[in-house]
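Late entry, written up from scratch paper. The run itself happened at the end of the previous shift, but nothing got recorded in the book at the time, so transcribing now.
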Amino acid sequence: MKTLGKTLKDAREGVPFTLKQVEEATGISNAYISQLENEKIKKPSANVLHKLATVYNIELQVLLAAAGIIEESDTPKTRMLNSVALSSQQLSGDEEEALMRYLKFLRHEKRNG
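Output as recorded:
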């Protein structure tokens, strides 16, 4: 598994964004992002990782696992998709994301009744 810094840098360059553009999009200073990418900060908050995952259009669980906060195989999404046979075909990334958004919506509605 790649380090968190390498994962973040690859994701940013894949978009592609400069550090300044990420700062403008997230409100996270470009100096802090640089420190993350250069492994000077190894355990950022989940909130920081969420903002970066959103801007880089990658799964939050990927960043949480790279930071050592969770084990990738223990993510709720992985458990759910592995335990439920939705069809004989694999879900596309877009389908997985739509399914997770719908599940979050259902849970929100259930809580707020």
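The first helix runs from residue 4 to 14.
(Scratch paper discarded after transcription.)
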